Amino acid sequence: MAFWWPLLVLGFAYALCRFLLMLIPPNVPSIDVDASDVLDDGKAKENSFIYIPSRGRTPEKVQCYEPATMKYLGYFPALKPDEVRERVAQTRKAQKIWARSSFKQRRQFLRILLKYIIEHQELICEISSRDTGKTMVDASLGEIMTTCEKITWLLSEGERWLKPEYRSSGWSMLHKTAKVEFHPLGVIGAIVSWNYPFHNIFNPMLAAVFSGNGVVIKVSEHASWSGCFYLRIIQQALAAVGAPDNLVDVITGFAETGEALVSSVDKVIFVGSPGVGKTIMKNASDTLIPVTLELGGKDAFIVCEDVDVSHVAQIAVRAALQSSGQNCAGAERFYVHRGIYSKFVAEVVRIVKSVSAGPPLSGKYDMGAICMQEHSEKLQKLVTDALDKGAELAGRGSFGNLGGDAVDQFFPPTVLVNVDHTMQLMQEEAFGPILPIMKFSSDEEVVKLANDSRYGLGCAVFSGSKRRAKEIASQIHCGMAAINDFASNYMCQSLPFGGVKDSGFGRFAGVEGLRACCLMKSVVEDRWWPFIKTKIPKPIQYPVAENGFEFQEYLVEALYGMNVWDRLRALINVLKILTEQNTIPSSSSNSMKRRSD
To answer: Cis link prior to 77 (omega < 30° from 0)?
Structure first.
C-alpha cells in the first residue's frame, strides 16, 4: 500500500488539474461577418410568393431563388475557365505560405469558426433554409451539428493523425526506422451538392485547411447564394489568425466551371450524381490527380420482427423525411419482416399523416420545399410507375396553405406498400420524401434484397438482437452500417464516409478523409546513425562474387526461415561466407568472375 498510495495521489492530482483547466475558457476572438445584404428582405412570410420564369441557364449568370417562395435572391457570375484557373493560381500562392503554418494556428482558426457557428446558428440555418427550402430544424441537424462535430474532432485528434506515423521496419531493416509523413497536396478542388450548402462547403474546407492545403470549392448553381455568404465566415476567421488571402475560395458557375477546376487542382472531392462523377473521373485522368467521389445512395432500412415498432417507426420517418428526403444518406428502401409488416405500416402512416409541408420559415410546417425545380415531377413519376406495377398508396402527409403554382416546389410525404424491385422507385435514387415499404420473410432474403441495388452507400438494421442485426449488416455490400439506429455514422466524425458501386469510392471524414488530403511519404533512415550505417555485403558488391547467389539464399533463410534451427544454421552459413570473403586478398577478390564468365 505504501507503494501505490503516492501513485494514486499523483493520478488524482493530475485528473483534478485537467478538470480545472477545462473550466478556464479559451481565449477565442470573435469575428464580425457582414450579413446585412442577406437579411434585408427579412424572413419569408406565408403566402407571400413571387413567381418567376423557369431557371433557364444564362451563360454569364447563376440565378438564385428561394425554392419555398420563388422569391428572387440575386445572381452570381458563371466563371469562365480562364477565370477559374486564375482563382486557383491565387489559392496556390496562398497555400505555399499556409503549408508552413503551425497546428496551433490551425486550431485557433477552427475555434474561431466554432465560436461563430454556435453564436449564429439562427443566421446560418435561415440562410440555408432560404436557399434550399429546408426547415430550421433540418438545417440545425444537417448543417450545424455535423459541422460542429467535425470541428470538435479535428481540434481533439487532427494533429495526432497528421504527425509522422512510425511503422515496423521488418527483420531485414531492424537497423532502420520507418515512418509515414503527411504533407499537404497543394490545392484541393471540391465540387459540392446543394442539399446541405453550409456543411458541404465546410466539410472539405476544414480537412483541407487543417492539413495545410488551400481549397477552391465550386458550389452548386442551386445553392450559390448561401455558399457565397458562408465564404465570408471562412475568410474572416482566416484573417483573424493571419492566414494569407485567397487560401479558401468559392466559385460559381455551371459545367465548364467545374471542368476547369478539375484540370487545375491537385485533388478533387465531388459530391453529386454518378453520371457527373464519371465525367469528373474521366477529366481527372488527364492530369492523373486523385479523386474522391460520393455519388448518393439507395440505403436499405431493415426492420426485423423483434423490434419496438413505435420506436423504430419514428426513426424510419425521420430517415426518409429529413430535409424533405433530399439526403444522400437518407433511407430510400424499407424492408420490414412480414410478422410486423401491417403494424409497422400503420404506425408509419399515422406519423406521416401528421406531417405537413410548407414554407419553412413560417415556422408552421414539419417539412420544407423541394429545392430543384421540376424535381417534384420526377418524384411523382416514380410514384406513378410503382402504382402502375401494383404498389398501393398507404398514406400521405399534407400541404400547407400554398399558392397554386407553388405546389410544384413541394411534395407531400408519401407511404407506398406492396412494392417490389421491378419498380423504378426501388432502383433509382429518389431524393424525396417517399417511404416504399416491402415485406421480407427471412434474414437471407432481406440481405439479398438489400444488395440488389447499383448503389452501396449505407444501411440501417434494427433487431431486438444486436448480434442478429450485426450479422445482417455485415453481409450488406455498402460503405457504412448503423445498428439499431439510422445514419449515426456521420455524427461519429472519426469514421470515414463513403460507399461502393455507383455510390462512388474514396472517403471523406475521419482519419482516412483527413489523410486523403495529404501526400503520404514513406521515409526510412538509419536508427543508430552514424554508428551503424548501411553497407552492401561484400559477396554482392560489384563485381558480384561467384557465391553471391548462395549468400542470398542463406540470408533469406536466416531472416525468414520457418523455424529457429533453420535460421541459426543459415545464419552460420552467412557468417561463414562473409568471413571467407573478407580473408580473400584484394587482388584475388577483383579477379573473381561470375559463372557465366
So the answer is: no
